[in-house]
Amino acid sequence: MKLNCKPGDLAITVKCHIPDNLGKIVQVICYEGLQEWPNYPDPIPVWLVKAYSGTKGLTYQYPDGTIAKASGGLAPDCFLRPIQPPEADDSDQSMTEQEVSGNESVIKELEICERT
């Protein structure tokens, strides 16, 4: 089974049943296995997640109808998309160098900044 996330990932929440949770940034802590989840006929892969600092936490609705805010809790893998840093690409670096070359004033300013 291919999972979207791995422990330590930062992820954004998608496809949430509770609209307040949509677009929240979370840190993926650990895999909690296959678990029953409302509106899914079979158990699905679930992670323990922690709301990233600066967010107002996550909203959970319990089977008895109680709604509560929490700084972390369970989230299905299908509700998460990892946030990937852009990969370093040599062509990006050379493109930047091409843009800078020929512009002597920028190069002089960069040299001055490096010295200070």
Quick recap:
With about 120 residues, the chain is α+β, with helices and mostly antiparallel strands.
Query: What number of domains?
Result: 2
Q: N-to-C terminal Cα separation, in Å? A: 53 Å
Give the helix tally.
Answer: 2
Runs in which pLDDT lies below 50 for 5 or more consecutive residues are 91-116
Radius of gyration: 22 Å
Encode the helix/strand succession as letters: EEEEEEEHH
Could you give a short account of the major beta sheet? Answer: 5 strands, antiparallel
How do the strands line up in the largest sheet? 6-3-2-1-7
Strand content is 25-35%
Percent of residues in helical segments? 10-25%
How would you describe this protein?
The protein has 116 residues and is α+β, with helices and mostly antiparallel strands. The chain folds into two domains: 10-82, no CATH class; 86-116, no CATH class. Helices cover 20% and strands 34% of the residues. The protein has two helices and seven strands, in the order E-E-E-E-E-E-E-H-H. Strands 6-3-2-1-7 form a five-stranded antiparallel sheet, with no helix packed on it. A two-stranded antiparallel ribbon has the order 4-5. A hairpin with a 5-residue loop joins strand 4 (58-61) and strand 5 (67-70). The N and C termini lie far apart (53 Å).
